[in-house]
Design brief:
By secondary structure, this protein is an all-alpha fold. The chain contains ten helices and no strands. It has one domain (about 1-225).
C-alpha cells in the first residue's frame, strides 16, 4: 500500500501549501506539472502494454472493453454523477472542497489500475505519478476552495488503499500465484492501454474517455485463459 501512502502524503503537502498560499499559487505551476505527469504516464502505459504476450488478446480486450464501456456510457455516468453530487453542496465551501477533491483524486481509471498494480505486484509506479499530479491539483484546489480539500485524504486512504488490499488478498489467496502468468500479463497490458489513454488526455492531445475502457480489465485475463486453452 506504499503507493497510497505516498499519494496521501503529496495531497497533504500540496493541500497545506495551497491553503497557506491562497491565490498566490501560479497557475503555470499546475500546468507544467500536469504536462510532465502526462509525458511520464505515456511512458508507463507503454511499458505496461508491451508486457502482452498475445497482441490479439490485447486488441480484443480493448475493443470489447471499449465497446461495452461505451454502451454503458461509464464516462458519462461518472461525469453526471459527479455533477449531481456537487450540486447538492453548492454554497457550502468545506463540503464542496471535500467532494470536489475526492472525486478528482479517486474517480478515474488511474486510481483503479494503479491500485491493482500495487496490490498484485507491489508496483506503485503508476500511483507515484498519480500522487504528483494529485499533490499539485490539491495545492490549486486548496488555494481557491480552502482546507476542506484535505478531508479527501480519508477517501483516498479508504478507497484507493482498499482496492490495493483487496488485490493483494486476491493474489495471496491463489495458490502459486504467478506474476508472469499469461492472464496476469494481459491484465497488465490492458491496464497499460488505459494508462496511455489517460496520458493523451493529460497532454490535451485527445479525450479518449479512458473510463469507458475499464471493462477491458475483465476481458483481458478471460481472453488470455481462452486463448491458452485453445493453444493459441
Amino acid at each position: 500500500m506504499l503507493g497510497t501512502w505516498i499519494n496521501v502524503g503529496t495531497v497533504f503537502l500540496g493541500g497545506s501549501l495551497g491553503w497557506a498560499l491562497g491565490e498566490r499559487l501560479p497557475s503555470r505551476v499546475r500546468e507544467s506539472a500536469t504536462l510532465g505527469v502526462g509525458l511520464v504516464t505515456l511512458v508507463l502505459g507503454m511499458q505496461m502494454a508491451l508486457k502482452t504476450q498475445n497482441i490479439l488478446v490485447l486488441l480484443l480486450s480493448v475493443i470489447l472493453g471499449g465497446a461495452l464501456g461505451g454502451a454503458l456510457d461509464i464516462s458519462g455516468a461518472l461525469e453526471r454523477g459527479s455533477k449531481k453530487v456537487e450540486g447538492l453542496f453548492r454554497g457550502r465551501p468545506v463540503a464542496q472542497a471535500f467532494l470536489t477533491a475526492s472525486l478528482l483524486f479517486c474517480v478515474g481509471p488511474m486510481t483503479l489500475v494503479g491500485a491493482i498494480q500495487d496490490g498484485l505486484f507491489g508496483d506503485w509506479t503508476l500511483l507515484g505519478a498519480k500522487a504528483i499530479l494529485d499533490g499539485v491539483s490539491a495545492a490549486a484546489l486548496a488555494a481557491t476552495l480552502g482546507p476542506g480539500v484535505l478531508l479527501s485524504l480519508f477517501v483516498i486512504l479508504l478507497y484507493q488503499g482498499g482496492v490495493t488490499i483487496l488485490a493483494r488478498l486476491f493474489a495471496q489467496s491463489l495458490a502459486g500465484f504467478d506474476p508472469q502468468h499469461p492472464a496476469v500479463l494481459e491484465l497488465t497490458a490492458a491496464g497499460g492501454a488505459i494508462v496511455l489513454s489517460i496520458g493523451l488526455g493529460l497532454l490535451r492531445l485527445k479525450d479518449t474517455r479512458p473510463a469507458d475502457f475499464l471493462p477491458a480489465l475483465l476481458f483481458a485475463p478471460l481472453l488470455a485463459l481462452l486463448f491458452r486453452a485453445l493453444g493459441k
